[in-house]
Structure formats: C-alpha cells, structure tokens
Specification:
By secondary structure, the protein is mainly alpha-helical. It is 60% helix and 0% strand. It contains eleven helices and no strands.
Amino acid sequence: MSHSPDKAPTSHFFAHLSRMKLIQRWPLMHNVRKENVQEHSLQVAMVAHALAIIKNRFFDGQLDPYRVATIAMFHDVSEVLTGDLPTPVKYYNPAIQQEYKKIEKIAEQKLIDMAPEAFRDEYAALIDTADHSEDEQFIVKAADVICAYLKTLEELSSGNHEFTLAKKRLDRILKNYHSPEVDYFMQAFVPSFSLSLDEITLDDPDSL
C-alpha cells in the first residue's frame, strides 16, 4: 500500500536536467542555427518512438514505444556534468572513446544518485544502459544518428557547407545498420526535411 512521505526530500536532480538547454551541440562547427541538448533529446525521443512503432508494425518487433521514447529523452543527460565532447575528439581513437564511456557512466550514476531514493530505481532504469535491452539500445542510438543527420540536412539547406562531410559520414552509418525500420523512416520522413515550408504545407506547390 502506497503512502505519501511526511516531507519530500530535497533533490538537485531536475535542477541539473534543466541545464540540458544550456549545452550546445556541434561545438566545433559553424552553425546557422544552434542546437542544444534538450531540444535534440526531444527530437530523438520522437524519432525513437516512431522507429519502435515501425519495427512492431512491420518487422515483428516487441518494443514498448513509450518506454523507448522515455529512454531517448534521457539518453544524453550525463552531458549536464560532462558537457558535449565533439565527435572528432570523442572518437579520435579507441582509448579516448573507452575513457569517455567511463566518464559518462560516472556522470550517469551521479545523476541517478541525485534522484530521491523512493524512486531512484525508476530513473536508473531510464538512464543506465545496463537496464536496456539490445533492441532498445539500438533504436535509441539509431534515432540519435538520424537526428544528427537531419541537422546536417537543415544546415546544408541553409547554405552551410560545414556539414557536408558530417552528412556523408552519418549517411554511411545509417546505411550500414541494414535496419528495415531505419530504412523505412529514412524513405518516408526524411526527404521532407530538404523542402521549404510551402512545399511541406501545400498539396500542390506549383499552384503558387
């Protein structure tokens, strides 16, 4: 039987999470429009939710789209403590990548420990990848890469060629997944991101 506590404990958990909006992505690259970790995480959650639905509906998946979406919302929370390490640095060599993974784990655990003890396990299940199935991990990772790819399309559409090589690299990663749900999403939804507002709003853009 549940009961309310006499007094809610003080926790810095959400005060830390609120700082996701202060962390800028793509820090070493010129951006026409800057993107922060908080908005990126929402987009990843939306895409991961869609990928889970696609997998379940067409490719015999057994995922909970709502759990997948919530995991995706929290997938970058460690960056409120570590910052966003640029990709060329993070993946410069296996040793740096491995050490950064260790730092991420420490940061994740520190955040989990900030949550009130009464429901700390609930947040651990979202933040700690050890509690995620292989399918959940893949869907969230694929959504993360798709959203990075969408960012490159938006920047290139604005005439920013700084993102040309990033687009090629991400396109190669997505194709190498050989994932039917990723391929479906890319075919159904991604082409619209290179169109103008009029083109995605009007049934017949030529009627203007």
